[in-house]
Amino acid sequence: MQSPEITEAYRIVGAPRFGGILVVADHASNRVPDDIALDIAPELMDEHIAIDIGVGGIAERMAERQGTAALLGNVSRLVCDTNRTEQDPAAIPEASDGHAIPGNLGIDREARLARFHRPFHDKLTDLLESTPPALTLILHSYTPCLASKPEEKRPWHCGLLYDEDDRGARLAQPLLEAEGLIVGDQLPYSGKVYNAAIERHVESEGRPYLYIEIRQDLIADDAGQAEWAVRLARICNKVALEMGA
Asked: What is the total count of domains within the chain?
């Protein structure tokens, strides 16, 4: 496998290929640069507010396959959330799921965005234009319940998100359900709201994509990540073929 390209803002694993699969996991890291202090409890950095648990392992396993590459965020979403637009205050959150982030108060937001947000999105644009994939897989995970609403359980094994273009979701849903999975349609989030990548990179250009959220307890260990990597590689190939037909 090709050596990873690593910068402050992102990592690329595998070799991007025209007509292949590109996996995008922007919440794949809980890294905080040494010169940034968030001033939160250290244990929170291993929880969902800081990282999408499991997605990095899935993406890296998928990128071991010829024809698949992965673009992984290389900084915690608490430092800079690249799944939000630059104008969204939550791109550099001052609070998340009931936890204050004191270190993000009164900072130079423009400098933070220029350092992390723009390089990530510029690289994604470059990959999509220089080696257009047959399918872009946007990969996230979610908690079984919100810490602020522990009584509201999320029964779905995964959810499919989209804005106007639901082609990938409509093709993938029966494939996932055929494996005995409970699939949320625009659940637990809506792609019409959490859609920075959709809006900027795929739907705006008519590019084929599949946006999936996986419940993190299913992919918190190596076995779960390996299982979902195989599953998603199989389903992505089928969706890409159908969308390209």
From this structure: 1
